[in-house]
Amino acid sequence: MPYNEFNHLALAANLKDYKYPKDRITRLLKSGEIIQIRKGIYVLGSKDRNGVLSKEILANWIYGPSYISLEYALSYYNLIPERVEMITSVSPKRKKIFKTKIGDFIYFTLKANYYNFGYTTVKLNDGRNFLIATPEKAIADKIYFENGVRTPKEILEFFTENMRIELNDLKNLNYAFLNSIVSKFNKKKMYNLIKAIAD
Fold first, then answer.
1. What are the helix (H) ranges across the chain?
2. Closest by Cα among 96, 196, 89, 86 to 137
3. Where are the alpha helices (H) located in 32-171, listed in sequence order?
4. Tens digit of each residue's pLDDT (9 = 90 or more) over 156-167
5. Rounded to whole angstroms, how far apart are CA atoms 89 and 85?
6. Considering only CA atoms, which of 15, 53, 20 is closest in space to residue 37?
7. pTM (two decimals)
8. Cα–Cα distance for residue pair 159/193, rounded to 1 Å
9. Taking CA 110 as the corner, what is the angle to CA 107 and CA 116, rounded to the nearest 5 degrees?
């Protein structure tokens, strides 16, 4: 396989010369040479992998439409000091958690009118892409889902104390872009996010 991660079509194409490709797939799964992540989605077993798995690619594939956001995105941008193991994404579809042999993937429901902006495409060295929130959208998504955090003071304390994001990193966000994101949410709590960072 050209990549560590692949779908059933790519796997079937690679096994087209076998008389019974389904039987071959069953044997590959039993031997651990390939691992099923979800129906139709696989990764190579650890012995045959070329480099590390792209959990970002898998996150987009497992449940869609979706893009990576929240804690995982904040860690990806080095805004929070902790390494995040669970891959956090948002989707306009209902909330889902997938526990797999390579880690857990969780998808939070974000209404379609809040979902369709603020994410970007990251291109990997192998030419493939995945979708992830911009730093500004990841911040906005996080505060949107956080209950009990409403005032500018509470929001600032939440990010700097609970999540341990450096104040300078918050101040260095693209303020104009964050403001445009917040205006699309059009909620008081979200406008307080702007005040928290601007003050």
1. 8-14, 21-31, 55-62, 70-76, 112-115, 135-145, 152-157, 167-171, 175-185, 188-198
2. 89
3. 55-62, 70-76, 112-115, 135-145, 152-157, 167-171
4. 999 999 999 999
5. 13
6. 53
7. 0.93
8. 10
9. 110
Residue carrying the six token digits 């010369």? 17
- Residue 20 gets which letter from DSSP? -
Angle value at C-alpha 36, between 35 and 40, nearest 5 degrees: 140
The domains of the chain are located at 5-48, 55-198
Phi, psi of 46 (to 5 degrees): -60, -30
> Tokens for 133?
């929130």
Collect all residues with Cβ–Cβ distance below 8 Å to 39 and sequence separation of at least 6.
none
pLDDT in tens, 71-127: 999 999 999 998 899 999 999 999 999 999 999 999 999 999 999 999 999 999 999
Name which of 84, 65, 95, 184 is nearest 136 in CA terms.
184
What is the pLDDT averaged over residues 14-18? Answer: 88
CA–CA separation, 46 and 13 (whole Å): 22
